[in-house]
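hi! just following up on the protien thing from before. the input was this:
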Amino acid sequence: MRELGGTPIDYQREDFTKVVPGGFDVVFDGIGEDGCRRSLAALKRGGMLCAYGYTAGVQAHSSLFSILTWTARLYVLGWLSGGRRVYFYSINLMRARHPAWFREDLARLFEMLAARAIQPRVAERISFAEVAEAHRRLEAGGLEGKLVLCPDLPSRHQ
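and the predicted 3d structure came back as:
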């Protein structure tokens, strides 16, 4: 992480908003807790918040309207926050707007995965027959990693 210019943080023991005096250049927030207010507060003037997920809203069973309201509020906070910028990343929009970029990025990610340069945390590999159970587990939270759908994997419940 440090070789990329990043700052590793132990979120259980450290307040990430105070780790770097003066604030971060960029904060990536894939959770959306507290409407990303803390992530925005952790930025220095001119910094950028990249929000790419809303796991907290899903786990809290927020409605689509609530999530859209949170998104609009985040944009307003970005405009009023002393030169900080807010950027939302959506993989679906990227795929639709820039299909060649998306294919290139995906190919590169698979190369990195094959070379073990990245090692995603996988909680469990599951069959398509277990999708409903996977959704229940995701909504309950507490997973240590991602659930991966594997079309060729037989169901454990047959």
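The longest strand covers residues 43-51.
The chain has six helices and five strands.
cheers
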